[in-house]
Amino acid sequence: LSDLISVKYGKDHKKLDDGPYPVYGSGGIMRYVDTFLYDKPSVLLPRKGTLDNIQYADKPFWTVDTVYYTEVNENIVNPYYLYCYLSRLDLSGLDSGTGVPSMTFDSYYNISVELPPLIEQQKIASTLSAIDKKIVLNREINRNLEALAKQIYDYYFVQFDFPNESGKPYKSSGGKMVWNEQLGREIPAGWEVKSIFDAADVIYGFPYATEPFDEDIEHSEKPFSVIRIRDISDNSISAKTDEMVDEKYQTKRNDLLIGMDGYFHMNFWSRDGDYVNQRITRVRETDISPLLIYHQIKPFIKHREEMSKGSTVGHLSDKDMKQLFILIPSDKSISNYFDKILDMITVNQNEKKQLSNLRNNLLPLLMNGQVTLNSCLSAD
Q1: How crowded is the C-beta side of 115, counted as CA atoms within 13 Å?
Q2: Which of 49, 60, 103, 232 could form a disulfide bond with 26, CB atoms 3.0-4.6 angstroms apart?
Q3: Closest residue by Cα to residue 88 from 54, 124, 41
Q4: How is residue 63 annotated by DSSP?
Q5: 277 burial via Cβ count (<10 Å: 0-12, 13-18, 19+)
Q6: What's the sign of the alpha-carbon dihedral 3, 5, 6, 8?
């Protein structure tokens, strides 16, 4: 590796003003500042902390002192190819730290790298980069959709200024409001308030006997995919079972899943047919979009999470769930609008996951020379 790169120290960023340039730490982007440390494609290597989080930057950036940046000899190696190559390596054996995991210049410089011809590197890098950019694009689209949904939710369900029959803001234009005892506030006339158990199809998961599995491996003696709490945030699967139980425990796309232990993760499931494990609550639409349920119960869930800090593990109970009341608009089109946003979010989640699996399966084959891009194109 010493023939391919020059390793450089990151620097302190605390005195820098805010600006357009990302500051990378060992866990990712920390903030944006008004100047940059380096402005060419670079592989960012951990110096301390999380040693498996190798990153890549192709726009001007700054790195903190826990992350090395690299000057890459592009006459020999394509920077993105090198990033992909190094990201596959297990660096834990090179750790020189006695407490916090640490890497020295020599730890990196002594790594051996096998390189195909530069033109082949460029082709592989171009393909993998295109997949990665689409994954990032899907992630950004979903962030924008989620921000849009939150903005409209606040306008409709907090300010109650949804369009009235004349297209004017309801509450600001003098729309009738009535007091609701369950919510302890005024709501628009004609709107309903229901327990979450009456507003949606709610079930608690089943205590499956499971074993861990790699979801990228299709064959398994245990055929049914089981969602555990750790899987909720990124729509992944980490366990399987061969138990057959009631289909009511199966997911449908757009189901809202709530982890009842730990950090109370909430997310929308993007696939049909997975099974919900114990200590997960599944919320499915009947009267109102799950996206609207999510925004209505999120403050309560966050409050319970804050209240549980300092204890060993936080828990949500059936009693907690029975305290949740859902405001249901009289105009069904409001809920339908949020359903359309949720559909776009879960479609993007599915595509992002499929692209990630494709990249992860393709990467080692290309790097090891087991397949070439030409052979892939010929087969296609």
Answers
A1: 22
A2: 49
A3: 54
A4: E
A5: buried
A6: negative
Q: What is the pTM of this model?
A: 0.85
- Per-residue confidence in pLDDT tens, the chain, 380 aa: 999 999 999 999 999 999 999 999 988 999 999 999 999 999 999 988 767 889 999 999 999 999 999 999 999 999 999 999 999 888 777 766 555 667 888 889 999 999 999 999 999 999 999 999 999 999 999 999 999 999 999 999 999 999 999 999 999 999 999 999 999 999 999 999 999 999 999 999 999 998 886 544 444 567 899 999 999 998 999 899 999 889 999 999 999 999 999 878 999 999 999 999 999 999 999 999 999 999 999 999 998 888 877 666 688 999 999 999 999 999 999 999 999 999 999 999 999 999 999 999 999 999 888 777 665 555 55
What's the CA gap between 142 and 145, in Å, rounded?
Answer: 5
46 neighbors 103 (Cβ within 8 angstroms): yes
Instruction: Write the single-letter amino acid at 314.
Output: G
- Amino acid identity for residue 98 in this structure: T
Cross-strand pairs, 275: 226, 250
Return all residues near 292 (Cβ < 8 A) that are at least 6 apart: 153, 157, 326, 334, 335, 338
Extract the tokens encoding 380.
Answer: 């296609």
- HSE-CB at 246 with a 13 A cutoff on CA atoms is 7
Q: What's the rounded Cα separation, in Å, for the pair 213 and 287?
A: 36
Helix, strand, coil in percent for the chain, rounding step 5: 35, 25, 40
> What tokens appear for 116 in the block?
């195909």
| Alpha helical stretches, state H, 95-117 | 105-109
Separation CA 208–CA 199 (nearest Å): 27
The DSSP-derived string for 310-378 is TBSS-B--HHHHTT-EEEE-S-HHHHHHHHHHHHHHHHHHHHHHHHHHHHHHHHHHHHTTSS-HHHHHH
* Cα–Cα distance, 269 to 25 (Å, whole number): 30
Question: What CA–CA distance (Å, rounded) separates 218 from 231?
Answer: 18
The token duo for 307 is: 């209240």
d(CA 130, CA 265): 31
Give, as one character, the DSSP assignment of residue 17: P
